[in-house]
Amino acid sequence: KIFALAKQFHRSHSVLTRAVAAGDPQLIIPSVAAAAFTMELYFKCLIFIDQGKEAGWDHDYVKLFAQLTPETQARVKEHFQTQVFPPFTESLFDKILSESKDAFRNLRYIYQGYTANWTASEIANAVLMTILEKRPKWPPPQKLSKDSPPTSPPR
After folding, report:
1. Contact predicate 29/12, CB 8 Å
2. What is d(CA 16, CA 63) in angstroms, rounded to the nearest whole number?
3. Which residues touch 106 (CB under 8 Å, ≥6 apart)?
4. What percent of the chain lies above the pLDDT cut of 70?
5. How far is CA 30 from CA 15, 35, 40, 67, 121, in A?
6. With contact defined as beta carbons under 8 Å apart, do 102 and 60 qualify?
7. Is the peptide bond before 86 cis (omega within 30 degrees of 0)?
8. Three-state SS sequence of 55-122
9. 84-96 per-position pLDDT tens digit
10. CA 18 to chain centre
11. For the chain, give me the number of helices (H) and strands (E)?
């Protein structure tokens, strides 16, 4: 169920990103919110695969990542490494995860002046790749776009 819902938000992000690229800037925030929620659901799916239990109510990506087994964490980082330039470093992964950790929560309250950093598309793709490795019969969605729109619009 978690993976199916994540794929729906993933598809929503892809559709919205194409609309933004076609000239509709009003869909920037919804597109990024869909990407951020997709990543949260992918983490929660992977936690369920690893532990056989739900991850709970947390939205913080750093805390969700910490719930994964050390082996799964290493695999996510290996997949991440294949997608980034310059060469992968632990600190780059940690920095991106930390900068984006509250994106979904902050996007929900952007009307109150919150800003959201979203630089984690490659991490979301790495989590997805790890899920599909563990569940190879599950049909994959499209990758999250690296060209996600910016996330700090003027207030």
Report:
1. no
2. 28
3. 114, 115, 116
4. 89
5. 11, 9, 15, 27, 15
6. yes
7. yes
8. CCCCCCHHHHHHCCCHHHHHHHHHHHHCCCCCCCCHHHHHHHHHHHCCHHHHHHCHHHCCCCCCCCHH
9. 766 767 788 999 9
10. 18
11. 7, 0
CA distance 5 to 11: 10
List pLDDT tens digits, range 14-59: 999 999 999 999 999 999 999 999 999 999 999 999 998 888 888 8
Cα–Cα distance for residue pair 124/34, rounded to 1 Å: 12
Sequence letter at residue 1: K
Q: What is the DSSP letter of 136?
A: T
